[in-house]
Amino acid sequence: MWTLIKHEFKTHGTQPILYLILGIMGLLQVFLTTIMIKTTDTVSIQGSYIQTVFQTNNAIFLSNSIIFIFSVGAVIGYYIISVEYQNNTWEMLLLGTGSKSKVLWAKYIVSTLYYLSYQVLFYSLFLLVQSTYFNLQIEISFSLLMLVSIMFLSLVLFTAQIACHYLIKNGTTAIACAVGFLIMLVILPSTDLFRYVIRLLTPGYLAGLDEFSVTGFVSVVALNIIVASSMMSLVVKQFKL
């Protein structure tokens, strides 16, 4: 497995266009969040758990990050997975290793590592903006909760987009699924299903808390990891050339 992961990084990690697009998207995410903070009445956003200006700004970043999950997943999925369909290299790759599940899991792990690195890098940039541009003191403990939320409470949504690139042979169509997912997120908030179930599978969970519980937070993180892993296991079973 480790050999396959290294092969994926060596093969696809040298594509400048992948880093360029992700860089542009990350900068856009930070920029749009900064604009929203400047033009939003942040006091009205503060709730039982979200109290300080720093925390409120982070809540806005959380909300915006949900929009970018599918977009980032689409870019990573296209350049790591869909490219194999485009270049007709799936059969050669699978025959060379002899294990379909190992190849698919290796690609998923690499895709996830790119995604997690993206979140760490651009959330760190956002913290820098808060510290310098907004002149706010960084709340370390809350920032760590934010980072964990952004990284792991979005795994299910990210995996859903990645699954499209495995199961849909046309890369453009797989990318278009991101739009469909975004439309669903716009429609679902008004339903009980979203409020009581889907919210547990999005980074917005932290921002919507009335009271923070370590046990509850860890449970939600574990839930996201388990659901994402289960989704990927299902993708491996359903994958066919």
Automatic annotation (TrEMBL):
Q: Does the keyword Signal apply?
A: no
Indicate the transmembrane segments per the record: 17-39, 59-83, 104-128, 140-160, 172-194, 214-236
Keywords of this entry: Membrane, Transmembrane, Transmembrane helix
Q: Does the keyword Nuclease apply?
A: no
The record's Pfam families line, in alphabetical order, gives: ABC2_membrane_4
Q: Do you know which PANTHER family this protein is assigned to?
A: INTEGRAL MEMBRANE PROTEIN-RELATED, MEMBRANE PROTEIN
* Name of the protein described by the UniProt record: ABC transporter permease
